[in-house]
UniProtKB/TrEMBL annotation:
Molecular function terms from GO: phosphoribosylglycinamide formyltransferase activity
The keyword Transferase is annotated on this UniProt entry: yes
Annotated site location: Raises pKa of active site His: D145
One Gene Ontology cellular component: cytosol
Role, per record: Catalyzes the transfer of a formyl group from 10-formyltetrahydrofolate to 5-phospho-ribosyl-glycinamide (GAR), producing 5-phospho-ribosyl-N-formylglycinamide (FGAR) and tetrahydrofolate.
Annotated protein name in UniProt: Phosphoribosylglycinamide formyltransferase
Organism (species): Alloyangia pacifica
Reactions accelerated catalytically: N(1)-(5-phospho-beta-D-ribosyl)glycinamide + (6R)-10-formyltetrahydrofolate = N(2)-formyl-N(1)-(5-phospho-beta-D-ribosyl)glycinamide + (6S)-5,6,7,8-tetrahydrofolate + H(+)
Residues involved in (6R)-10-formyltetrahydrofolate binding: R65, N107
């Protein structure tokens, strides 16, 4: 049974779908939800689900990313996870943190990578006139929103879409894609999941 730590910064909707999926014959279980924001709504949701939580506020570490990441790792050392899932964690992690977790850390990104790394992906897809948009789960590497693809889900871009309406439809697909990828990944299978 693989032990999973989930990193969040906000409401934690992807964390909830991941945690809810890890039941029954699933090859993994959540052992920690960790946030850089003590006010993250996802922390209360995790507590209500009986998942241990921890907070490492990044603000006292201003300019000291190694110190922040050492504090993150100290929490991971307590929980002993096998897999890390970034689920709306809004801090960029350095190579010093990422490398020891190589091949064991996943992220979900709201675009069809390699398109639109970084922020404001929905607005950028609309500005480009794209016919489709979506989300990607990938292994985390030191390069931002890079790394081997483990799954993608596509949604059509509609004529009257705004960044908000497009984001809402992509989020629905994130909630299907991430649990599907994690189940396969935790079982040792890195074959990409493609939806629909």
């Amino acid at each position: 049974m693989k032990r999973v730590a989930i990193f969040i910064s906000g409401g934690g909707s992807n964390m909830v779908t991941l945690a809810e999926s890890m039941t029954g014959d699933h090859p993994a279980r959540p052992v920690l939800v960790l946030s850089n924001n003590a006010d993250a709504g996802g922390l209360k949701k995790a507590e209500a689900m009986g998942i241990p939580t921890a907070v490492v506020d990044h603000r006292p570490f201003k300019g000291d990313r190694p110190g922040f990441e050492a504090a993150l790792q100290a929490e991971l050392d307590k929980a002993q996870p096998d897999i890390l899932c970034l689920a709306g964690f809004m801090r960029v992690l350095t190579a010093g943190f990422v490398e020891p977790w190589k091949g064991r850390m996943l992220n979900i990104h709201p675009s069809l990578l390699p398109k639109y790394r970084g922020l404001h992906t929905h607005a950028r897809a609309l500005e480009a006139g794209d016919a489709e948009h979506g989300c990607t789960v990938h292994e985390v590497t030191p390069e931002l929103d890079d790394g081997p693809l483990l799954g993608q889900a596509r949604v059509p871009v509609l004529e009257n879409d705004t960044p908000d309406t497009l984001a809402a439809r992509v989020l629905e697909m994130e909630h299907k894609l991430y649990p599907a990828v994690l189940r396969r990944f935790a079982a040792g299978d890195k074959t990409p999941v493609l939806l629909p």
